[in-house]
Amino acid sequence: MTNPPVRPAPLDPEMFDPVCPSALVPFRVGDKWATLILRCLEDGPRRFSELKVPLRGITAKSLTQSLRALERDGFVARTEQEGAVRRVDYALTTLGRGLLGPLDTACAWTREHWDELIDAQEAGLARAAGRH
Amino acid sequence: MTNPPVRPAPLDPEMFDPVCPSALVPFRVGDKWATLILRCLEDGPRRFSELKVPLRGITAKSLTQSLRALERDGFVARTEQEGAVRRVDYALTTLGRGLLGPLDTACAWTREHWDELIDAQEAGLARAAGRH
DNA sequence: CGGTATCCCGGGTGATACTG
DNA sequence: CAGTATCACCCGGGATACCG
Questions:
Q1: What are phi and psi of A63, to 5 degrees?
Q2: What pLDDT is attached to residue A27?
């Protein structure tokens, strides 16, 4: 039985598409991209360029920065594969995987109260507009 | 039976003191101060100046900004009391109170893994220092 | 007391170009 | 492919002063 390194299915390029302005998703971890990166690593290690796909519009610089920060904080492990073609993998550490728990809780809450969040925000904007 | 408006105990000026560098508390809601404000409102309505106490060093401007944002998003309700002395109260809305659930989850996780978080961070810093 | 009005600074973020 | 280097901009946030 061969035992090739676990390779999860490719990421859905639209996994963050419908929304995520993070204005409405009220929980943030680390910097702007950190939670999204964590989510991307949920199903297994990912390559640098692989991560760029669902992270619409992220620059190499920002991605590097976020990854380095996550690495420094012990949430993500970076491993450089040797071989002809360059290949660097990023994976969740145990600690990083643990973060997904509370993160899921937060996301679940947001999804459950999505309509209320939208309504409240619209009402708030209307009030703000009326005041001026 | 008189029914005076509920007034919770005064806030502990040191309720955020030992730590909270928010670098290690990996969950953020809204801006820099939002989660702390939410926590401050947990036990009931608070006045503007009352909030400034545990929020060591926050400026009136920042507090106003954060509160206005929380109000716009429907997490906090502002009520201006009439009377001789000026008095403005901020209280959690139902939606805002709901946020405390996931927030508690996040805080609990952080507390549970505090030592690991510290260790991982120190290790990360050491590695970073070694690389340069 | 409960804010506004200004000024200002640092850095987080993006755009672009370049590299091993 | 997996980054680095550089510039440049915006704005969150603090400091200070003032107001109804």
A1: -60, -45
A2: 62
What pLDDT does A62 receive? 94
Dihedral sign from CA coordinates of B42, B47, B48, B49? negative
Mention every residue, 6+ apart, whose C-beta is less than 8 A from residue B19.
Answer: B25
Average pLDDT, chain A: 79
* pLDDT score of A111: 79
Burial of A102 by CB count in 10 Å (0-12 exposed, 13-18 middle, 19+ buried)? buried
**Region class of A89: left (phi > 0), else alpha (psi between -120 and 50), else beta:** beta
Position B33 confidence tier, pLDDT thresholds 50, 70, 90: confident
Contact A109 B101 (CB under 8 A): yes
Contact A109, B101 (CB under 8 A): yes
Burial class (CB in 10 A: 0-12, 13-18, 19+), A100: middle
CA A91 to C1' D1 (Å) is: 18
Token pair listed for B60: 């009136």
Contact A128 B72 (CB under 8 A): yes
Closest B-chain CA to A121: B73
